[in-house]
Amino acid sequence: MSSKHPHTISRAGTSGKRQNSTIGTSEKRRNESVDQHEEGGDDAEAVTPTLSRFRPLRGCEIAVVVVAALAMVLGVTMLAGGYHALLNYALRQELAIKEGSRAYGMWKSTPVPLSLRLHVFNLTNPEEVKEGAKPILQEVGPYVWREYHEKHNVSFHDNATVTYLQQRWWVWDQEASGGLSQEDTIITLNTIPVASTYSMRNSPLSLYFLDKIFKITKEQLTVTTTARKLLFDGVQDPLLDWAQANIVAKNGSYHFLMPFLKDSPVAQFEKFAWFYKRNLSLTYDGVFNMMTGQDTLDNLGRIDNWDGLNSTSFYTPPCNEVTGSAGEMFSPHLSRQDQVFFSSDLCMSAKLFFKEEVRDAGLSAYRYWGTNHTFANGSTVPGNECYCVSGTCAPMGLLNAESCRMGAPAFVSFPHFYAGDPFLLDGVDGLAPDEKNHSFYLDVVPGVGVPAAVSVKLQINIHLTPNPSISMLSKVPEVYLPMLWFEVQANMTPDLASQMKTLLFFLTSPVASVVVWAVLVGMAVLAVLVVVVLAWRRNSTAAYQQVS
C-alpha cells in the first residue's frame, strides 16, 4: 500500500510540518503579546502613583480664584446697570445737605469767592431837580467788596429740611476798586423826607405837621456824603436825629407818637445807608427752612419756608408764595425749563428763564436769566396783578418793593432799566441799558446742580412824586429815580471745577462705566487663567520627575 502512494505520504508529511510550524509561530506571537502586555502593565502601575499625587491649589491660589470670581460677578452686575445705581446713591450721599457730606461744607461756608460791586448814581443837577428839571445822572463805580456767607444755628429736622440763619459780611477790596475810594463825594436824593411823605400821603393833617418838622429840622431834598457812609456806615440826617430825640427817647416830647411809628424807618434807624446794619448781621436775612435732598435730590436746595411761613404778607396770592431754590443749591436733575429762586432782599420768589447752554471753567452749564417777564405787571404777564401793592402796579421792568421796605416808595429793576418799559428811560439822562453789562444770569451745571457762574444784577429806584403839601417836593418831577445798582458775582474755582469734571465724567459717560467694569472682569478672568496655568505646570513637572 505504501509503495503504491509514495507522493501522497510525502505531501502529508510536508503538510504536518507546515502545520507544526504555524502553531509554533502563533504560540511565539502569543508569548510576545503576553510579554508586551506585562510590560504595559508595569507602565500603568508607574503612572497610577503619579496621578494619585496630583497637587491641589495652594491657599493663595484659591484666594485669587475666589476674589476673581467675585470680581467677575461684581463687574457683570455693574455692567448690567448696578454701576449707575451705585453712583446715584453715592451722589445723593455727597450732594445732600447733611453733616459729613461734601456739599454740607460748601453750603455752610461758601467756598467760591464772591464780590459785591456797587455802582452809585451821582445826581449832577440837584438844584434844577428841585424846580422840576429832568435828573441828570453820572454812574460812579464799581466800588468793590469781597462778600462772605456763613450759616449759623443750623438745625436738621426729620422731614428732610434744615433751619438756619445766614450771616453775610463784606470787606473792602481796594485793588478791585481801582482808583475809587470809599471817601469819594456822592450827591444823591435824600430818601428820608421822600419816604416819610409817601407813607403819609393819604393823611393831609399828617402831611401838614410833617412839612413843619422838615422846616424846623432844615431837612433837604438831596444830600452830599461819602460812598462809605451812603453804603454801609450811615448818613446822619436831621429828621432822624429829631425823631430819635423826641419820639424814640422815652423822655422825648412826642414819645406818645411812638406806637404809631414803631414800624417806620424813622423810628427804627438813627442813620441811613443802603446796607446799614447788615454787615455781620445774623438776623437781617430772616430764618430759612430749606429742603436738604436727603429724601430725594429733586428737592435739594428748595426753600420750604421763610420766617416760619410758606407765604408772605408783602403781595397777594399766588405772588406771595415762598417757593423755589434758596439760591445756592439746585437739583442735579436740571431741565431747560424756568428756574424759580427765593430772595429775602426782594421778599419774593423770582423767575429766571432758560437762555442757552454755555461753558464755564470747562464745564457745560445751563444759563438762566432775567427777562422782561421777571419783573412784569399784569398787562405783560396775565396773573401778575398780584404784585401790585396798595393798588399801585409798577410799570413793566419794575418790582414794587414798597411793602418789603417798610413803606418806602422803592422799586427794583435790572440796571439801567434793562428789559424795562422804554418810558422809564425818558425820565432821566445818563442811562444806557446793555445786555452784556446789565443782564442777570445764573449758570448751573446739570448733573450736580452746582452754580458755575453767578451774576446777580439789581437796581434800586425811588419813585419821586410831587406833593403840594410838602414845600421841598412841590415842584419835583415824577420819575423813577435810579439810586444805585449792584452786582453779586461769583465764579467756580479751578479746583472745584476739576472735581466736578471728574464726577460728571463717571456720572454721564457710558464708555467710562463700560471700560472700568469690563477691565475689572477681564482682569478677573486673567487672574483665574494664571492660577490654572501655574497649577498645570507645577503638576506636569512633578509627573515628569516621577517617571524619570
UniProtKB/TrEMBL annotation:
Query: Which residue stretches does the UniProt record annotate as biased composition, category Polar residues?
Result: 11-25
Where does the protein end up? Membrane
Where is the segment annotated Disordered? 1-47
What ranges does the record list as Basic and acidic residues composition bias? 26-39
Q: What is its main location?
A: membrane
Q: Please list every transmembrane segment annotated in the UniProt record, as residue ranges.
A: 62-86, 503-536
Q: Which UniProt keywords apply?
A: Glycoprotein, Membrane, Transmembrane, Transmembrane helix
**Gene Ontology terms: cellular component:** cytoplasm; membrane
What's one GO MF term for it? Answer: scavenger receptor activity
**Family of the protein in this entry:** Belongs to the CD36 family.
* Name assigned to this protein: Protein croquemort
The organism of origin for this protein? Chionoecetes opilio (Atlantic snow crab)
